[in-house]
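Re: your question from the hallway

Yes, I did run it. Sequences:
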Amino acid sequence: MNKILSRERVHSEAIMLEVKSPRIAESYRPGQFIILRIHERGERIPLTVADVDMDEGSISLIFQEVGKSTKELASLGGGDELRDLLGPLGRPSEIRDYGTVACVGGGIGAAPIYPIAKALHDEGNRVVSILGARCDELLFWRERIERVSDSLHVTTDDGSCGRKGFVTDQLRDLIDDGLEVNRVVAIGPLVMMSAVSELTREYGIETVVSLNPVMVDGTGMCGSCRVTVNGETRFACVDGPEFNAHEVDFNELFHRHGFYLREEECSLKRYLERCGK
Ligand SMILES: Cc1cc2nc3c(=O)[nH]c(=O)nc-3n(C[C@H](O)[C@H](O)[C@H](O)COP(=O)(O)OP(=O)(O)OC[C@H]3O[C@@H](n4cnc5c(N)ncnc54)[C@H](O)[C@@H]3O)c2cc1C
Ligand code: FES
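Structure:
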């Protein structure tokens, strides 16, 4: 069993769990994820490893409460145990000395962008980070990301912190003001990754996005996470989750995104009724 060492609320919609797993902590590389099950009959939940603590032999997971399984996960606390913890899964991020890399994290994407920014920084890149959220309250890990960045820019949709607007507005301004960006890594909501991709295509800047289609087995067998990249079918769990943004068929991803909406709503409703909420 995989013991939860601590639970912390990072903002009103997200929780961080630190889970004991010396094996994953040791073999994990930035960009990889795990799949967990809370109990025997639990759904499989893929989550990116946001940080590791080698001394504790633990991994940190940050997740947004969006539906039945993540709400159930949020109800656990320090001392509870997870039935299964599978990983590390997926291909690690490509970490090389590119020159200047813009690391763009939208919403919960700040969690997965952190270990990548840190690794790129350690490799000698100039890391320019951009964090965006709907409002000030939903921003997290600013200091942590700032520590591994040469500069940090913050945007909020409502202007309650940093620049009012989207991460793409900030990225465009930086480039137009003369910043030579050699590579962009963007992680966040699909609509944000698609917008970053459109922008950097204009400027011809190599861009990587981390895709999160629905995953079930995480081994390339079930086909549920298939995405079209450069006209070919790829499985995000084993071929990704990172892909060249300019080759991703975002329209197909938008279309597939709502496939299970009805089932997800029913499942959440049943769960909340059972909990008396
Ligand atoms: C590689 C990968 C890494 C991820 N990392 C994170 C992370 O670090 N933090 C975080 O908050 N979220 C992350 N997600 C998304 C997270 O897995 C889903 O939010 C979660 O599974 C939702 O389950 P639910 O039952 O609470 O919601 P549901 O009501 O079942 O679904 C809500 C939405 O979540 C998504 N979702 C549902 N089931 C899955 C599934 N099995 N696989 C992927 N997406 C699903 C769908 O878009 C769906 O519309 C990641 C997903 C992938 C594929
Ligand atoms: S999750 Fe089954 S093939 Fe990727």
